[in-house]
Amino acid sequence: MKTRLASVVLVIAALVSAPALQAQDINVEKKRSRLQQLHDAPLKADARREFKQFRRKGRFYGAFFANLSENVAGSYWDAANIETAEAHARTSCATKSSEPEDCILYARVLPKHYDPSESGLTLSRSGNQDFREYTRLQDVERYGAFAMSDNGAIGYSWAEHSRASADREALKRCTKSARKLLRNTPKHLQGVLASSPQHVCRVVHRSG
Description:
4-stranded antiparallel sheet, 2 domains, 3-stranded mixed sheet, 10 strands, alpha+beta, signal
């Protein structure tokens, strides 16, 4: 079952706050994922090995693209939304392919109770866990903020003396998380992630 928490989404470049663009809800999911396999064509060689890893380690939101004729594949998981996961997985497959247009969406990892018709902001599996901890730490007499990037970076603050300091601390931690995420990304995808708008941290929830 999902809970919905009101949030204000701010687009933020580096550590500089910008005016609010829109208000929306955050869809908080439980931690269980489900694999949605869209094709039953057999995978071979590197594509098969990568799919085994995707099935074992993939967490929502995740996507797996395969080039069946060349036996190569690309995957990405623990993104904040399925669109980002699919975009990066497609790019990963394409960079390994002689014919990038042959990469097809082979499988996805979604929350167990995922409902694509629901509006609101989604979080990665890690982001859902961190958001629960963030809400637990809040003090009604202090300020907190929760920041994220679509690629899956997370940072949050609590017990700050002002809203501005809460935003700064959350963004600082999210930016550090984004750097770590980039270091753990396969080299052929690092440049794509670093230059993508999905890598930018923004504040999506405030407390206090």
